[in-house]
Design goal:
Elements lengths: L1 H6 L6 E5 L1 H7 L2 E6 L2 H6 L1 H4 L3 E10 L3 H29 L4 H8 L4 H15 L9 H14 L4 H11 L11
Parallel strand pairs: 2-3
Antiparallel strand pairs: 1-2
Helix pairs in contact: 5-7, 6-7, 8-9
């Protein structure tokens, strides 16, 4: 698509964002830019209106912003899935969620993330936790097209596919 824009003497920038509606309201979105660096730099003041300046990043040529957004999505989903699995291990062996979070959770790093996952489990109804399942297939299709595997994403996709799929709209 960038080439089609160039043929019309225009420039395409792909600037993917992360942070959802709250990030937009607070002006602290993470922004991942791809395309012409010069044009990206010209737009920085505009991006700073909704983005967190330290997290507005030029990532490379056209398409790079979307790739880095994919890295962001996979990192969030795969780590969340890992924490869900370890919590399930504890619960399925008779340990209460409160004991797990008190013993293993914390305020920093991975311990904080584990605590956030347990908090999410405790807030959700019917033991449902939101995973961006439909997006996983995009990544699997792309890596299949390019000829390399992403086995953890494949395993998460296969696992989620076995359960009840519930469509959720969290405004993202």
């Amino acid at each position: 698509m960038a080439k089609a824009f160039q043929e019309k003497s225009a420039t395409l920038l792909d600037v993917s964002v992360s942070g959802g509606p709250l990030g937009t309201r607070n002006g602290d979105l993470h922004m991942f830019g791809g395309g012409c660096r010069h044009q990206f730099n010209r737009c920085l003041d505009l991006f700073k209106v909704i983005g967190w300046p330290q997290r507005i990043v030029y990532c490379g040529p056209s398409g790079s912003g979307q790739i880095v957004k994919g890295v962001n999505q996979l990192a969030m989903r795969l780590s969340a899935a890992a924490y869900l699995e370890v919590v399930a291990f504890g619960v399925n062996n008779g340990i209460e969620l409160e004991a797990i979070v008190q013993a293993v959770g914390g305020d920093n790093g991975w311990r904080k993330h584990l605590k956030q996952i347990v908090d999410q489990i405790q807030k959700e109804q019917d033991n449902q936790v939101y995973v961006k399942f439909p997006e996983l297939l995009y990544f699997l299709d792309e890596t299949d097209r390019q000829g390399y595997p992403i086995p953890l994403t494949q395993a998460l996709y296969e696992f989620c596919r076995q359960g009840d799929l519930i469509v959720a709209d969290y405004g993202t």
